[in-house]
Amino acid sequence: MNGATYRAYHFFWRGLDLLFPPACGGCGQPGARWCARCDAKAKRLAPPWCPSCGMPSPGGEICSRCREHPPALQAFRSWAFFDGPVRNALHRIKYRRDIALADALTLQMLKTYRAHLAWQVDAVLPVPLSRQRLQERGYNQAALFALPLALALGTSYRPAALRRVRHTRSQVDLSWEQRQENVAGAFIAAPDDVSGKTILLVDDVITTGATLNACASALRSAGARTVYAFSVARTPLRSAAP
Ligand SMILES: [Zn+2]
Ligand SMILES: [Zn+2]
């Protein structure tokens, strides 16, 4: 895969927008999938940040949470905080399968990726849903970002390399510790796909990083060399607190 494939993917959705003018996924105004006003309102994450979790950190110091509980990932980053128009857009992608909106947000994610992350990765994987959740929803919203990111980075897209083997309860009202326990051992990775490789995991929202940690542990057990993660959004810390 190469950049031309991604351009074709992107222009396909842009072409549809010319035929059927869209409404903005952030505010509902007609005109663009993701309007300039919502883009200006998105609270982007940028340096200085914790080198591990990518949360704001004065002076770029490793944060106290990562010092206390070192993540199983090399590093994880997000494009913007899960708030306002970003939250609206992700809700629409998660429940209404708005692939063109996901493509519009992927373009914004790529700006952060290219400006601040110089990760050389061998494969891109969406954080998988359980079979039960996949059947309920019909698709994995993380894949709507992982595929165009893989295309844009010219990297192999391996959605089947990691599987969720245990259905886990919703984590919305769980504390940090409970989340770690809830997802521990919930994933399994295929050594043939990941052994010796540098992996980029992609998700829509990162809250505490518990799910990513469980994914990274499974990938490392299957021989992955390094695991990074990149999400569209990050829950601000206060709402993730127990
Ligand atoms: Zn808007
Ligand atoms: Zn940190």
Your description of this structure?
- There is one protein chain.
- By secondary structure, this protein is of the alpha/beta class.
- The protein has one domain (3-237): Rossmann fold, CATH 3.40.50.
- It contains eleven helices and seven strands.
- The strands form two sheets. A five-stranded parallel β-sheet has the order 1-7-6-2-3. A two-stranded antiparallel ribbon has the order 4-5.
- β6 (198-206), α10 (210-221) and β7 (226-234) form a beta-alpha-beta unit.
- The termini are far apart.
- Bound molecules: zinc ion (2 copies).
- One zinc ion (ZN) binds at residues 24, 26-27, 29, 35, 37-38, 85.
Question: What is the element layout, followed by pairings?
Answer:
Blueprint: H1 3-19, H2 36-41, H3 64-68, E1 75-81, H4 84-96, H5 99-116, E2 123-126, H6 131-137, H7 143-153, E3 156-157, E4 162-164, H8 176-183, E5 187-189, H9 191-194, E6 198-206, H10 210-221, E7 226-234, H11 237-240
Helix pairs in contact: 1-7, 5-7, 8-10
Bound molecules: zinc ion (ZN) (2 copies).
Residues 50, 52-53, 55, 62-63, 65-66 line the site of one zinc ion.
Small-molecule binders:
zinc ion
The N- and C-terminal alpha carbons lie at a distance of: 43 Å
Q: How many distinct beta strands?
A: 7
Overall CATH architecture: 3-Layer(aba) Sandwich
User: How large is the share of residues in beta strands?
Assistant: 15-25%
H/E element sequence: HHHEHHEHHEEHEHEHEH
The largest sheet, given as strand count, sense and whether it forms a barrel, is:
5 strands, parallel
What does the overall shape look like? globular
Unreliable sequence segments: none
Strand order of the largest sheet: 1-7-6-2-3
Summed over residues and divided by their number, the pLDDT gives a mean of 92
Radius of gyration: 17 Å
